[in-house]
Amino acid sequence: MRRIFHKLESGKMVTPVYIFLLIYTIMALVWWGVLLFRQSEQITGYERENLTMRVDSLKRPMEYHLAEQQIGKNERLRTFKFLGEGAIFLLILLVGAWLVYRAIRKQLKLQQQQQNFMMAVTHELKSPIAAAKLNLETIRKRKLDEEKQHKLIDNTIRETNRLDQLCNNILLASQFENQRNQLFQESVNFSALVQAGTDEIQARTNSHIIKSEIEPGIWLDADKFMMQIVLSNLVENAIKYVPKGTEIIVKLFEKDRLLKWQVIDAGPGIPSDEKDRIFQKFYRIGNENTRSAKGSGLGLYLTRKIIEQHNGTIVVKDNAPAGTIFEITLGEYSLQSV
Ligand code: ADP
Question: Which residues cross the membrane (predicted)?
């Protein structure tokens, strides 16, 4: 019994139970219809008996014939009414069942994604803390030369940055959830912001070359903190998902009076049927067994939310010959000579 409840709670039994209930309800409806038709036949039988007792068909054939016709007509009317009502009832039942089924499936999927997210996030929160603690303890306990100390300190900074990014993403996601996220927009030298952000990520990454092609003097009304999160999410993803040593390019330029902001990599790319889904909350390509890179599935969801709040759009395209281009389009910018 406990196993059945456990299966129900985990969602495994929902589909069979739901299908059983639906079939049971439809069969009950059909049975109800059969009973009604039987009842209708009985009514017709009683009416005919009654007519034979009331009217002598030999003496008053015309009256008998008319009454007989009326009884037949009444029966056909009842049949029509039962079939019509039954069909409408069945239709409503099926539409309702389909809507409920869709809602349940969505809920179960979200529940599963949330579980995966909790597992991933717990690991993601613990591993940088453990690494930073170990590094600091090593520095305290051992007499290391300066170079080794620097290496450990750099590693600790990298881990705390990862932790910081994850905390920002979790906090932001909950703010978006409660619709409490407000932008603090101001006029920003966007070229400088993107350049500084890219340089900062490059300074703490030695596994990849991050090139920047940024048109100078582009100003934008934007929330600095949010835009840094966007840049960090996109570039850190590229670092995470493309092979070491590969080039990542951050571009900022104007085209047809619109501002284009691209993060380009030459990694494995994103399959066409996943291109929309990667922006969903908690969505990660593959499954827990096949994925090697760690993550929470929040980065691109937040990135799109932030860009939409800035009245912009983000799309993902294929890079040639391989890889991915994340392209953000923004309007309302200005150019100032530098
Ligand atoms: P996370 O990286 O935490 O899994 P994201 O929302 O940032 O979550 O990304 C969603 C998914 O999109 C990732 O799990 C990954 O499979 C895919 N993805 C994102 N960026 C890239 C990229 N540059 N190249 C290949 N796949 C990517």
Answer: 17-37, 82-101
